[in-house]
Amino acid sequence: MDAMGDFLVQGLEQARRAVVDVVGRDNLQLNPKTMPRSRRARANGRLKQIETIVRRLILLMAFALKLGPLAASAPRAPQAEPDLPEGTQLAIFPRVPVKRFTLMPPARRVILSDQARDTFGAVLGLSGPVSTQPLIDRILALQKILKAPEAAAKRLARTLQRMQAKGEARPMVGPAAGAFRLSPELGAVATALPGFIRAGLESWESSG
Asked: Are 49 and 178 a contacting pair, CB within 8 Å?
């Protein structure tokens, strides 16, 4: 394994440990229904940092993949209706939504639904317990990606390939914000990632 491969393995392992730490701090493994709003906000903040690191690690993995040319998308054939006895109908059950981890999030500012704002746009601090389900859903989605990062890297590599084919601007990567709040090992990974990614994107325009 080369130096970059070792860096990726260690980075993903540190991310897994950080997720376990987020779960353990608030005993989320016990699946509580509610938790204090302030504690959920702190957990969401820590989880957001880990998500950013994981996205960047998977982006580095995607850079190393060699993909074939994009295949032309074939038109989707209409789905055949099943043969049912006369007078019967096919029962359709609603699908349960599953939280998915976004590998390439859109560049926009998201306001949480439980944030209230005053007349001048300032966020008001609300009190009282809040549901843990959104937080747990995010953790489960992140853990799913960490179990199979190679598959996620391949999907992201295809996304990057399509972006280049369309002549889109290359992804932008900023510095590691708040790395001092992480463990020393994960903080070192977070700090090194922007430089590695910028180096991997240097040939973006010429290889599109």
From this structure: yes
Cα–Cα distances (Å) from 114 to 8, 68, 79, 101, in that order, read 36, 45, 40, 21
Model pLDDT for residues 23-51, shown as the tens digit of each residue: 999 999 999 999 999 999 999 999 999 99
The residue among 50, 57, 65 whose CA lies nearest residue 11 is 57
CA-to-CA dists, residue 184 to 89, 99, 168, angstroms: 60, 30, 36
Helix (H, G, I), strand (E, B) or coil at 24: helix
Instruction: Please state the domain extents for the chain.
Output: 1-67+129-208
Return the minimum-mean-pLDDT range out of 68-72, 74-78, 179-183.
74-78
In angstroms, the Cα distances linking 189 to 11, 16, 75, 96, 183 are 6, 13, 43, 36, 10
Q: What is the pLDDT of residues 160-186, one digit of tens each?
A: 999 988 899 888 888 888 898 999 999
Cβ neighbours, 10 Å, residue 135: 21
| Angle formed by the axes of helices 133-147 and 3-25, nearest 10° | 160
The residue among 131, 176, 142 whose CA lies nearest residue 39 is 131
Kindly report the pTM of this predicted structure.
0.77
Does the pLDDT of residue 6 top 90, yes or no?
yes
DSSP 3-state assignment of 130?
A: strand
